[in-house]
């Protein structure tokens, strides 16, 4: 299981049919009980090494990021990537220039370089994560163009960008997470 409080709790909330960024104490108690019960079936709670555990066969299944799953499947073609029918969290890497950056013009040039389809595709070819830039397909390696990890099936739920939760929700999640890690 991932070592990420939000990904794990949000997955459990979705499994139970509850909303994310949830402050409903009764629903969160159900999530806490669900996670504690499931924990006995988990090999570990870590984000590092998840790919290696499924590739080696030590773990039969893993909660895993799509790029990590893709690299694992390329190493061990018998692995299958699946999308949870209950839904999943969307995410995106971002590029920023820090306020007061000494080389602002060069930073902007570099950002524009990375956002060109050919260069964004090179990052996808290396890391296995979707580029988030249009027109990268002609530059992708053939095995990535139709990879299930980068191309959700038509029946997959739309991934949810979860907004930052309020401080009270974060505190409730932290209690569940601390309890889970005991």
Could you explain how this protein is built, in words?
The protein has 182 residues and is mainly α. It has two domains: 1-90 and 159-182, D-Maltodextrin-Binding Protein, domain 2 (3-Layer(aba) Sandwich); 93-154, no CATH class. It is 47% helix and 0% strand. It is built from eight helices and no strands. The protein has helices at 5-16, 25-39, 50-56, 66-75, 104-114, 117-127, 142-145, 167-181. Helix 3 (50-56) packs parallel to helix 4. It is globular, with a radius of gyration of 19 Å. The two termini are 15 Å apart. The model has no long low-confidence stretch (mean pLDDT 95).
Gyration radius, rounded: 19 Å
DSSP helical segment count:
8
Number of strands: 0
User: What is the CATH architecture annotation of the largest domain?
Assistant: 3-Layer(aba) Sandwich
Q: Specify the CATH homologous superfamily of the largest domain.
A: Periplasmic binding protein-like II
User: Domains counted in the coordinates: how many?
Assistant: 2
Unreliable spans: none
Distance between the terminal alpha carbons, to the nearest Å? 15 Å
Shape: globular
Alpha-beta content class:
mainly alpha
Mean pLDDT over the full residue set: 95
From the 3D structure, determine the CATH topology of the largest domain: D-Maltodextrin-Binding Protein, domain 2
Proportion of residues in β-strands? under 5%
The CATH C-level name of the largest domain is: Alpha Beta
Q: Report on the biggest sheet.
A: none
Series of secondary-structure elements, N-terminal to C-terminal: HHHHHHHH
Which range best describes the helical content: under 10%, 10-25%, 25-40%, 40-55%, 55-70% or over 70%?
A: 40-55%
């Amino acid at each position: 299981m991932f070592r990420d409080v939000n990904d794990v709790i949000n997955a459990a909330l979705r499994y139970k049919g509850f909303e994310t960024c949830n402050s409903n104490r009764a629903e969160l108690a159900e999530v806490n009980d669900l996670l504690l019960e499931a924990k006995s079936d988990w090999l570990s709670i870590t984000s590092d090494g998840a790919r290696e555990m499924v590739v080696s066969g030590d773990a039969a299944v893993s909660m895993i990021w799509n790029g990590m799953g893709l690299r694992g499947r390329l190493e061990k073609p018998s692995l299958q990537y699946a999308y949870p029918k209950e839904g999943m969290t969307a995410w995106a890497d971002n590029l920023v220039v820090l306020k007061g950056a000494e080389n602002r013009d060069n930073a902007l040039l570099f950002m524009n370089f990375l956002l060109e389809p050919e260069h964004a595709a090179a990052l996808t070819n290396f890391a296995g994560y979707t580029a988030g830039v249009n027109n990268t397909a002609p530059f992708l390696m053939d095995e990535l163009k139709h990879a299930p990890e980068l191309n959700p099936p038509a029946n997959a739920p739309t991934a949810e960008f979860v907004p930052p939760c309020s401080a009270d929700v974060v505190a409730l999640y932290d209690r569940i997470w601390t309890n889970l890690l005991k």
